[in-house]
Amino acid sequence: MEEKRIYKRPPKSPALAGFLSFFPGIGQIYNRQINKGFLFILILAGLITIQKNGAGQPFFGLILAGFWIYQIMDAIQIAKTINRRVLKQEEEEEEIIEELPQLFKTGSIFWGVIILALGVVFLLANFELISYSTIWNFWPLVIIVIGGKLIYDYSTKKNGKES
Fold it and tell me: What is residue 106's predicted lDDT score, i.e. its pLDDT?
């Protein structure tokens, strides 16, 4: 008698993940990246809210389009990665791929302060205490702060290794 071979079906469909990602964040939730999915939904809501104002166009429109395409490609790639790991039997199917980028590691007060400050600024803009055009004039400050944080982390790590 012939032996019957049973092939394991991949646990995640990249096509379905991509299709679900036409509704941003849903493809990531399908891939069991719940936090990342909700983060993408919040990013989309923020980008759409900025579109309402009309300031900074077409820049914010291009960012929205780029984000939409990115999150679709991300869901497809993560589904392929999950399938590849399961088929190679390196890890269990239940393993969750890295949820959030390394920038948002827990225990860092820096990103909490940044997000809190951005929330306050956008809240003030919604109540028209400051204008979005004023916020737009200070966008390079974000790059300066992040650069300063990276330099501080590097020097702290370097001093820690020398000790």
Answer: 54
